[in-house]
Each structure stands twice: as structure tokens, then as C-alpha cells.
Amino acid sequence: MSSLKEEIEAADRKFMDRFGAGDFTGLSNLYTEDCKVMPTGSPTLNGRAATAKLFQSVYDAGSKKVKLVEEEVGSAGGDVIYSRGLYTFYLEDGKEADTGKVCCSLETCKWRTASLH
Asked: Hey, what's the signal peptide range on this chain (predicted)?
């Protein structure tokens, strides 16, 4: 049986693969319908369509790869899981474009909220 961290890391791999492939509909489907994404310096985004648009804009701005690293994963009770980690976006030439922290609450390994800073 896999650990919570392994399950979250498997979801992270799907996210990274879909971002790299430019599949923003598939990427946004990793989130719940009522997800909230909180990018730094911007208003909170609500729902899958806004999530897809956000990551499409990051991709269009030059980031073609993302790496997610989980630092902490745990149960918040019931079907809710939390994760805390780091993200790094990379340009097509492999140079680092942006890095920051991410904190998520998940329901059965679907992202419900995400904070990118």
C-alpha cells in the first residue's frame, strides 16, 4: 500500500507531465470543480477554467517545464489531505524561470486549493 506522500507525488507527476505537454484542460481536471488557486500578487482564481488559463499563461510566457517537490504531506482528517512543498518553473532552455512555495489541501488526491508564492 502506498503512503500519502507517494500518492501526492503520483498526482504531482501527472501535473508536471500535463504542464510539459501543454495540456491545460487535463491539468485543470486534476483539481476539484470548486478549486481555488492563489497566485502571488493576483486575486484568487476559482474553478478549473481559471486554473487552466493561469497555467496556460505561465506556459505562454516561456515556462515549458515545472518541478514539484513535496516537503510535508499529512492527513487533515476524513478524506482531506494537505501538502506543502516547492515548485520551480523552467524555460525551454532549462534555465529557472520562477520558484516558490505551494500549499494544497486535497480531497482523495485532487487539488482543492493551491497557493503559489
From this structure: none
